[in-house]
Amino acid sequence: MAPMPLPERELIAQLRRFVSPAGRTQFAAGAKAAIRVGMGDDCAVLRIGSALDCLVTTDFSLEGIHFRRNWHPPESVGHRCLARGLSDIAAMGGEPVAAFLSLALPGTLPQAWVRAFFRGLLRLAEQHHVTLAGGDTAGSPTGVLADIVVLGTVPKGQAILRSGARPGDRIFVSGTLGGSAAAFMQMGTRRKKVDERQFPRHFYPEPRIRLGRILRERRIATAMIDTSDGLSTDLTHICEESGVGAEIDASSIPSARVGQPARSVDLDLALHGGEDYELLFSVSARARVPRMLAGVALTEIGRITSGRKIFLRRMDGKTEPLKPRGWEHFRKTQSRGRA
Predict the structure, then answer these.
(1) What is the distance between the alpha carbons of residues 125 and 123, in angstroms, rounded to a whole number?
(2) How many CB atoms sit inside 10 A of residue 329's CB?
(3) Which end of the chain is more exposed for a tag (fewer CB within 10 A), N or C?
């Protein structure tokens, strides 16, 4: 049997070495547009004019990995498909402009499912003034495969990158964590749908576009990422790109409350669950950060350190290494599956 691909982070690191051995700033051959930031961040940043940079991001939504048709209504699948790309734009402090969708569908799929999928996608697009400007369709021999490309803009040189964190910076996260993973775990246990109203941040996540823009405009965030793969993994991305370490406080992590009656999800889900699409960001030690911004709660959970390792301060005050155990494609073992 042929060996499986490298784990996702190792595969991307290898590709970056192949594509850009000389560094992050590249120039498109035969074109005037400068690629200011390529692989390694939430979006690529293209310098296309004197005032604005263009943000470009792409994300798959794959049946059996990101959703299951017997668990997720088609409106939710369409919403979540676009939300993945919009959340990347938010993580750069940008404004979304247009989306392009490539959609592969099995021949047995009911047309009603397709209409509902687009209804969910276009409803979210309208909320954020995003135009579905094109794409492609094809037949699929297996399940539904959707690839969303989202374009956005940001003032020249102002995109918030993962590489801006410095020792002494404080670490913040928006909203709550672990709710989406809790929904997946309940569906996996019951092998059926759960009540969507108990898990709104899973079925219909709201990309933090306005919050990301304000963090950029007020120059609050020094580095930022969205929590699509889980706090432990996404914090690792910031630390690797910035060349720093971190220490976070378990007692400060804002865990989601789910179910009836509502109960906080366990720490493991909040640390590693992913697909909450909140914003994780660092700020300078002296920056003033409000408790609420753009209607979203902000919580300080730790600090950036000068080392290269990440530590978790447990409830009992002891510290232990925090490994990136969030979602990573091609990893042989996962702390939990997605769908």
Answers:
(1) 5
(2) 17
(3) N
